[in-house]
């Protein structure tokens, strides 16, 4: 863990005792802080108390002597309205911060070890994992955490040339007023979490703080394929930041962009490196090309040579449940994209393959699969499961052959048999449900694990 000494011998209130909250409480106590922790869930309070974490009802606390309120990122800060602890803290003039902010303060005290922070609406986890993989290939000691992986204060403390690669959600950024990474990555922006931020303008403004806070001499890596992010890149450059732009839609004279299936690195109109992505299955699709481009730029800013980065890209295994290549049987590739719980997410997989035997369905989201109609010609046959099966069948109509499989085991067996008998050169059995899992599975991970087990149980060709 990273002990938090910035509040040593002072009183700190902590609200939210989930995984990150417990890790934060431990780190504060290890740094000699006087902690009072609380949660709206009695079970969470009881669990913390059993672990030796001091608890107390913050609604009845004297806030006059409190140095800070440390808030879990899942607790509302501004919208739909501030949590009651936030109101009490602000009334007493107490700052409200989160665990990312505590890390930033400890990092500065430790001499500013390498720190890359990644945000964006889509692609954060893949880019985070890819950057960590590249640094490890380059021989670096690296810690990964934040919104993806362990809670940030549960990581190992600074040591030698240790680097930190941290995924940051908008909630976490909102609670980190002095966020100052050496490398800040903003991938993209589209409407998301507006229930917690009120408007798209506010959501974008929160995300921009990660870029605006990049430390002096650091690097801001920004995807410029949407208007919001493009404007942020322009403002960062005008403010004197070192900006590396990333695009998969247009050629850049300065930055990293996609040319066919190659990443092209340009500096002031001169090509300095070309990195082929063809054949790297874990980085299929334009969305993964953007992730790869951002990770390339960040790894280079952290001192890795382009040739080392290229080697690391080729060995990246990808993330479970995100276009995960499970197995190839004969000519058939089986892909687990269980994380695709809505149509927007499923679109990325459907654009990445041809000759798809598509397993779809579950607990439906608003709009169903109608937005995916453009990609129906890529689907050879659909295998429909779960509550959404009838609605999806009505949308597919006579456009795409389908069958009502009902359950995942039936769908996998039927899709595997049809793909094997198709005579196609590269058929793909794709689980990309465009639905939540909650009708048949506890979460998308359990659904993806079930798919993987079923595929691995299939006989060899």
From TrEMBL:
Subcellular location: Cytoplasm
Pathway(s) the chain acts in: Cell wall biogenesis; peptidoglycan biosynthesis
Superkingdom of the organism of origin: Bacteria
Single GO molecular function: UDP-N-acetylmuramoylalanine-D-glutamate ligase activity
Main location per the UniProt record: cytoplasm
The keyword Metal-binding belongs to this UniProt entry's keyword annotation: no
Catalysed reactions, as listed in the record: UDP-N-acetyl-alpha-D-muramoyl-L-alanine + D-glutamate + ATP = UDP-N-acetyl-alpha-D-muramoyl-L-alanyl-D-glutamate + ADP + phosphate + H(+)
TM segment ranges: none
Enzyme class: ligase
Enzyme Commission number(s): 6.3.2.9
Residue stretches making up the Mur ligase central domain: 118-299
Annotated ATP binding sites: 120-126
Domain Mur ligase C-terminal: residue ranges: 321-435
One matching Pfam family: Mur_ligase_M
Alphabetic keyword roster: ATP-binding, Cell cycle, Cell division, Cell shape, Cell wall biogenesis/degradation, Cytoplasm, Ligase, Nucleotide-binding, Peptidoglycan synthesis
InterPro entries in UniProt: Mur-like_cat_sf, Mur_ligase_C, Mur_ligase_C_dom_sf, Mur_ligase_cen, MurD
Its biological purpose: Cell wall formation. Catalyzes the addition of glutamate to the nucleotide precursor UDP-N-acetylmuramoyl-L-alanine (UMA).
Family: Belongs to the MurCDEF family.
NCBIfam families in the record: murD (TIGR01087)
Name this protein carries in UniProt: UDP-N-acetylmuramoylalanine--D-glutamate ligase
Gene behind the chain: murD
């Amino acid at each position: 863990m990273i002990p938090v000494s910035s509040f040593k011998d002072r009183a700190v209130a902590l609200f939210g005792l989930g995984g990150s909250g417990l890790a934060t409480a431990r780190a504060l106590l290890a740094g000699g802080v006087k902690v009072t922790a609380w949660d709206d869930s009695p079970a969470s309070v009881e669990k913390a108390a059993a672990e030796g974490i001091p608890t107390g009802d913050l609604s009845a606390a004297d806030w006059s002597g409190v140095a800070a309120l440390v808030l879990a990122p899942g607790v509302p800060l501004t919208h739909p309205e501030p949590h009651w602890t936030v109101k009490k803290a602000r009334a007493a003039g107490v700052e409200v911060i989160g665990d990312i902010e505590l890390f930033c303060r400890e990092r500065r005290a430790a001499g500013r070890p390498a720190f890359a922070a990644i945000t964006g609406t889509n692609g954060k986890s893949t880019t985070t994992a890819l950057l960590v993989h590249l640094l490890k290939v380059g021989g670096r000691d690296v810690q990964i955490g934040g919104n993806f992986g362990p809670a940030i204060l549960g990581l190992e403390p600074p040591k030698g040339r240790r680097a930190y690669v941290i995924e940051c959600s908008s909630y976490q950024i909102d609670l980190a007023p002095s966020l100052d990474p050496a490398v800040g990555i903003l991938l993209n922006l589209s409407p998301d979490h507006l229930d917690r931020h009120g408007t798209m303008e506010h959501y974008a403004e929160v995300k921009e703080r990660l870029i605006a806070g990049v430390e002096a001499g650091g690097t801001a890596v920004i995807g410029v394929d949407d208007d919001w992010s493009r404007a942020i890149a322009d403002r960062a450059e005008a403010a004197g930041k070192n900006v590396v732009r990333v695009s998969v839609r247009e050629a850049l004279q300065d930055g990293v962009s996609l040319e066919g299936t190659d990443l092209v690195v340009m500096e002031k109109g001169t090509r300095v490196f070309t990195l082929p992505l063809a054949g790297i299955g874990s980085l299929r699709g334009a969305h993964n090309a953007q992730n790869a481009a951002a990770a390339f730029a960040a790894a280079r800013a952290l001192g890795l040579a382009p040739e080392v980065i290229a080697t690391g890209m080729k060995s990246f295994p990808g993330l479970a449940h995100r276009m995960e290549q499970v197995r190839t049987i004969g000519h058939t590739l089986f892909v687990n994209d269980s994380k695709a719980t809505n149509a927007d997410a499923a679109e990325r997989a459907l654009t990445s393959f041809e000759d798809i035997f598509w397993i779809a369905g579950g607990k439906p989201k608003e709009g169903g699969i109608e937005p995916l109609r453009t990609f129906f010609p890529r689907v050879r046959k659909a295998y429909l499961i779960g509550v959404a099966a009838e609605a999806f069948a009505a949308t597919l109509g006579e456009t795409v052959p389908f069958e009502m499989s009902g359950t995942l085991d039936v769908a996998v067996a039927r899709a595997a048999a049809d793909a094997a008998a198709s005579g196609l050169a590269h058929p793909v059995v794709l689980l990309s449900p465009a639905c939540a899992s909650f009708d048949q599975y506890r979460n998308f991970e359990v659904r993806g694990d079930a798919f993987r087990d079923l595929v691995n149980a299939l006989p060899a060709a």
